[in-house]
Amino acid sequence: MLKGVVFIRELEQRILSEGKVLPGEVLKVGSFLNQQIDPKLLKDMGDEIARLYSGDNVTKVLTIESSGIAIAFAAGLSMGVPVVFAKKHSTSNVSGDLLTAKVFSYTHQQTYDVVVSGEYITPDDTVLIVDDFLAKGNALNGLIDIVRQADAKLAGCAIAIEKGFQGGGDGLREKGIRVESLAIIEKMTDDSLEFRPQET
Length: 200
Hints:
The protein is of the alpha/beta class. The protein has one domain: 3-Layer(aba) Sandwich (Rossmann fold), CATH 3.40.50.2020. It contains six helices and ten strands; from the N terminus they run H-E-E-H-H-E-H-E-E-E-E-H-E-H-E-E. Helix 3 (39-52) packs across helix 4. It is globular, with a radius of gyration of 16 Å.
């Protein structure tokens, strides 16, 4: 599907002007995406994700706490559907039948047992997974497992920024899973970023 090339270029420019490369191939975009949030940019992201998946009859948006919640909310708002987020720890207010998966966080170098209450994702749902970053695909694989446990239909995955050089997104695409990333970084060094050309 054609993408909003003007918006993609705008996002790439924000990443270039405000992003900071940290040790361990970590990209910090806290000034507009996952600590301080630019509401207009997030709204545009949500609108673009809604456009990309407009023909998929999505009924739920699924993400993982916590930095994915803002973009998932934007997408859910644009699509007019509820947003569900997987908790990284089981709490007293998550009970009943639980959907669980192990997720290794590349950023935090820690494995989480993420949980979603089974009442929020059912076999009647068509689920779109949304997250802020995609590196090696650990979080997405865990969320895909949760969708499958629920016997729900997976529409695909929508990502704000994919680090294409780490292979997670391409690995999912090779399995036949639709992955739409608004910006894909092909190469990243301490002083430069190179984006993967996308269809226009």
